[in-house]
Write a structure and sequence with these properties.
Layout (H helix, E strand, L loop, with lengths): L11 H20 L7 H12 L5 H19 L5 H47 L7 H11 L4 H9 L5 H11 L3 H15 L3 H4 L3 H65 L1
Helix pairs in contact: 1-3, 2-3, 4-5, 4-10, 5-6, 6-7, 7-8
């Protein structure tokens, strides 16, 4: 197509000619917008636009090029894969906020569980100290808390008005089950039992929580490893199916159709 090209690249002169042709085509298409022109009318319009400077052969080539572009414009419609991509994008856009919220909820639950373990460690260190009260435990817990900081602050503000009511309100403000169980033990320590006896099973619960977390992390790692193996294996499968299996099936179907046509002709 291009006579003076270097490694498949057009020269500046050829690029300038192509740009001039594109500008001319755009101007002509804009003028015949909404009208279905014939080749003769389009040829006459090109003569007027160029001022008779181009030969009839060049004008006819321009006419054929513009007619081809007009036909392509007339055949424009929404393809099935474009509609499918649109529906898929709408579905992803609709459910993306829900997925983000679910992910944030999962991460929040993990953070809350981790913080409960930290608060239990704080209680285990302070429970054996002399003159340690439930209020002092709440003060120390509030200093180390992040997720439950606001409910603990509210509980401390109302603790002087009644320990039982303040702890009940704390359970309502933070209805996370492991945290609620810990607050129930604080209620026992505030009413009848000493703090050490109220949390006598704290060490065993801590060991159980550590073992449960270890198993959860192992399951999470195994799940991620499975996804990693699947993603790593996908390019090879795509290569095999894309370059071997699917072309072989297409060629086989084409040959079968040819054989079927030949049999029809013989009959």
């Amino acid at each position: 197509m291009y006579a003076d090209t270097l490694f498949g690249q057009a020269t500046p002169e050829e690029q300038e000619k192509a740009l001039e042709a594109a500008v001319l085509d755009r101007r002509i298409i804009y003028k015949v917008k909404g009208v279905r022109p014939t080749e003769e009318s389009l040829l006459e319009l090109l003569r007027k636009e160029t001022g008779g400077e181009r030969s009839d052969e060049a004008l006819r080539a321009d006419t054929q090029r513009i007619m081809g572009k007009l036909e392509k414009l007339d055949r424009q419609y929404v393809k099935w894969w474009q509609a499918l991509l649109t529906v898929l994008a709408d579905w992803v856009g609709y459910w993306a906020p829900v997925g983000i919220r679910l992910f944030q909820r999962k991460m929040r639950q993990m953070e809350m569980k981790h913080e409960v373990d930290q608060l239990q460690a704080v209680i285990a260190m302070l429970a054996d100290m002399d003159r340690m009260s439930v209020e002092h435990l709440l003060i120390w817990m509030e200093q180390f808390a992040r997720v439950f900081e606001e409910p603990l602050q509210t509980c401390l503000l109302h603790f002087d008005q009644g320990a039982e009511q303040a702890l009940e309100q704390l359970k309502e403000d933070a209805p996370f089950q492991p945290f609620v169980r810990m607050v129930e033990k604080l209620e026992l320590a505030a009413s009848t039992l000493p703090i050490r006896k109220a949390f006598d099973d704290l060490e065993s619960e801590y060991v159980y929580a550590q073992e449960e977390r270890k198993q959860e992390y192992e399951r999470l790692i195994e799940h991620k490893a499975g996804w990693g193996r699947m993603i790593g294996f996908a390019p090879m499968m795509a290569l095999i199916f894309g370059y071997l299996v699917i072309p072989l099936i297409v060629v086989s179907l084409n040959q079968m159709s040819v054989y079927y046509e030949q049999l029809q002709r013989i009959q």
